[in-house]
Known about the structure:
The complex is a heterodimer.
Chain A: H1 3-18, H2 25-36, H3 39-50, H4 58-64
Helix pairs in contact in A: 1-2, 2-4
Chain B: E1 5-6, E2 22-27, E3 30-35, H1 40-46, E4 72-73, E5 92-94, H2 98-113, H3 129-137, E6 179-181, H4 191-200, E7 205-208, E8 215-218, H5 235-239, E9 245-247, H6 248-253, E10 258-263, E11 272-278, E12 281-287, H7 300-304, E13 319-320, E14 328-330, H8 333-351, E15 356-360, H9 366-380, E16 385-387, H10 394-403, E17 421-425, H11 429-432, H12 434-445, E18 449-453, E19 462-463, E20 466-467, E21 470-472, H13 479-492, H14 498-504, H15 507-518, H16 524-531, H17 535-547, E22 551-555, H18 557-560, H19 565-578, E23 588-591, H20 598-603, E24 610-611, E25 615-616, H21 620-630, H22 642-651, E26 656-660, H23 664-667, H24 671-679, E27 683-688, E28 700-703, E29 712-715, E30 720-724, H25 736-746, H26 756-766, H27 775-781, E31 783-785, E32 829-834, E33 859-862, H28 864-869, E34 877-881, E35 886-893, E36 901-905, E37 933-939, H29 945-957, E38 960-961
The complex binds iron/sulfur cluster (3 copies) and FE2/S2 (inorganic) cluster.
FE2/S2 (inorganic) cluster binds at residues 53-56, 64-69, 81, 83 of chain B.
Amino acid sequence: MSPEKMVRMANQIAIFFKTQPGDDAAEKIAQHLSDFWEPRMRDQLHAHVDAGGAGLDPLVIAADARIRTTTAEG
Amino acid sequence: MKDFIIPVRERDMGTPARSGAPVTLTIDGVPVTVPEGTSVMRAAMEAGIQVPKLCATDSVEAFGSCRLCVVEIAGRRGTPASCTTPVAEGMEVRTGSDRVRKVRRGVMELYISDHPLDCLTCAANGDCELQDMAGMVGLRDVRYSAPEGAGLANHFEARDTSGAANPEWLPKDDSNPYFTYDPSKCIVCSRCVRACEEVQGTFALTIEGRGFDSRVSAGGAGDDFLTSDCVSCGACVQACPTATLQEKSVIELGTPDRAVVTTCAYCGVGCSFKAEMNGDELVRMVPYKHGKANRGHSCVKGRFAYGYAHHQDRILKPLIRERIDQPWREVEWDEALSFAAARLRGIQARHGRKSVGVITSSRCTNEETYLVQKLARAVFGNNNTDTCARVCHSPTGYGLGQTFGTSAGTQDFDSVEQTDVVIVIGANPTDGHPVFASRLKKRLRAGAKLIVIDPRRIDLVKSPHVQAANHLPLRPGTNVAVVSAMAHVIVTEGLMDEEFIRTRCDWDEFQHYADFISDPRHSPEATEMLTGVPATSLREAARLFATGGNGAIYYGLGVTEHSQGSTTVMGIANLAMLTGNIGRPGVGVNPLRGQNNVQGACDMGSFPHELPGYRHVKGAEARAVYEQLWGVEIDPEPGLRIPNMLDAAVDGSFKGLYCQGEDILQSDPDTKHVAAGLAAMDCVIVHDLFLNETANYAHVFLPGSTFLEKDGTFTNAERRINRVRRVIPPRNGYADWEITQMLAKAMGADWGYTHPAQIMEEIALTTPSFAGVDYALLEEKGSVQWPVNDASPEGTPLMHVEGFVRGKGRFIVTEYVATDERSGPRFPLLLTTGRILSQYNVGAQTRRTDNVIWHAEDVLEIHPHDAEVRGVADGDWVRLASRSGETSLRAQITDRVSPGVVYTTFHHPDTQANVITTDYSDWATNCPEYKVTAVQVSLSNGPSEWQEDYAAQAANARRILPAAE
Ligand code: SF4
Ligand code: SF4
Ligand code: SF4
Ligand code: FES
């Protein structure tokens, strides 16, 4: 997936959870990503964050560390 | 299992059923108790006594014109018509005195004197009520004849004996492709007129003239059936007691001798049909009176458009090829399956377990879908399964799951009969869900109010005897803002149902929501500029919905196919909870599903993150159920969704796909991206009826079977599980579930299902909401609505009656976020897409029937103002371009769309509206944003270069080598 597309999709999720009550948006974003993003996509996101996370909403970057770690095999 | 065969003719009760206090009377000495308001005719039928009749039938209100049904009633004068006389307590009725017999014979004699006596060669021979009644009343001779020298006084002879033309005679109207109107056989009973009004709600027919000159007429002067408003639903044909309105298939093939009850394979209404057979030939489809979704009605697709099963394009032998630039090679099943299995296993060996996946079909049966996802989870060993529901209703699953706790509509279709205010948002029922639309219109004619929220002026906004109280023509992409503004009005004007909210919903969450939604930025006045909806009409609509009695919301893909699709679904759920419109008849939140089995495909675990019954794969408990039964380990991580599969294919990590009954190249957005993904794969297996567009990129083609050729179940938009029954043997040799099983076996699985009933047993065993479902129950009840379990062994027509499935209903904050897809200087217009009545989805089936007469090509609807500034005239070829691509089609100038908005359908591959649509999608589910694309329109000379290349590539990809000797 192109990085722009991934960034846009991740940010869309952040925008929704940002508007929700409570101060656990990062946690909820991480949960959503863990539940719906296939490991390959999560890996791509990790890599993008590691490389500086250009374009990502700060909440996505905060969420990244909390995303469920995936089982290795591809 | 035995076929469920019923006699062709069902009992006609004469007049519609009533509900009311019991009334007891005697008919020919037989006591009978019926609801108040029932006709004497119907009461007699209840008592087992048939009164002769012609103008009455139980699908329409009695009219009392033929006087064949006369009876005598003790204490009353004369011989009243039993169809228009309501029962009364203690009434004594005699149906067979000499006096009434004489009246009936006289009536019959008059009818027959003006009817051709060509019964033996008539298409309705043996299926004609006039014939039956002549027999029943004992008509033996006809004394009337044409008066001497006064020409012919009849309607049925074209010329008199001298050869002069009979001015009363009218030729047959053959204009409709599916039925004929032969005026010479008409008895002017008006059953057809009433059916068109009461059942269908189209008002296309009238009786013109008076007395001897009365005629049934379609449309106005100079119209025939085709040019009139007729939508070819066939209700009039079904109601006609004679051969006047007659299916062409019956004229051609003869009358049926038996019927098998089955379910329509087109839209999510899920109409029940009798497939009427003559030998092994299907003669006609007649909607089944006892079908609980359709109550005896249907639309043109279900009733008439089944001819694709015998279309010459249908592929009946498996095809394979090494590379997609080669022609196809016809092979035997064994070879095709081992070729496919070896390729998939080879890919997995080289690229890993997760490099292959499946797409299940929302057109196939539950049992077939269940097997395809099982193939991924148990045989491929991954969760790469998705379904086209991804691209239509996945936000419904997510949104309703979050708010109510279950991913489905809350009502049955009967519920509409008790509704007082209906919101239709992002749906066009008269085209997309026609039988539901007819039922809705009936309710609207009885006084219910309608609010339409749609960028287009859909037919429901104004049609004969139906007018929306409010039409909110919002700008595409602003659903959340409009729904929130309605909630704002309801909350700030104190119109909410606080009692309901306190007892049924999470109060803390509500308070937070109320704070949020009360903010003036959500007011209709504040959002008017953005949404294009006048604040006053929005306020009116909100007040009407909150205070008008039972409020029901029906919505479609205009809600879900947006980047905020899931948020809008939540907003709709909020509206229903705010107004207490959940948990009883006449209310609720009702997604109108696109394809016939979208609900079922979702229920059956087609989504990559969910096992059947909406249980996330991360849950060890749910996984354990299948791990034990299947003896495999289930991956606890979600798999790839369709758009993700295509992305991964372009990236090189996804290489093989088994796609059953879907045409993702035509139906999914951003065609070029889909094509690139498909082209990057090493093994694409298409399992379908025809070489569809996706098959241009396939290496294996497995010929599929039609719904007429297999057993199984479909689940419609009201969660109703309906039986599909085999009426003819599969022309391709196997039912689709057998083909999936053969593929699984070729890959080493040891499946041994011998009938879909066994698959349903497995579904029931493993899925709590289906625990009580089995074929025996379906045979007994006809259909059931899930959940079916110990708590509700006969199913659940209404959901959330005592409390929400998740406990307390949740109000969720719905902040409007503008889509990134915005019109600008390069692309100043917004394109939205939809469909029309006669065609279905990508059109693979309907384009291969006579339905093309109504829609031969996709056109672009454009407002006169936008057309004028571009110099576009009606019928001109125009170029439609977005940042994704461009295509050409003809323009249709109409003020149905607002200025700034253009609209088209996606039924035809040569237009390919999806070349234009982008890869933007719903934030939660990746459901593509079909409904908003920024575009430009300009004049063009004809098909675009891309279209011509595409046509050439498609023709090339469809070559089939003659079978090897
Ligand atoms: S086919 Fe349907 S719409 Fe057409 S005239 Fe008959 S009842 Fe009316
Ligand atoms: S067309 Fe058929 S239903 Fe209509 S008035 Fe004539 S006989 Fe009756
Ligand atoms: S397409 Fe829909 S409305 Fe039409 S007959 Fe089939 S199920 Fe019924
Ligand atoms: S059936 Fe009663 S008047 Fe015709």
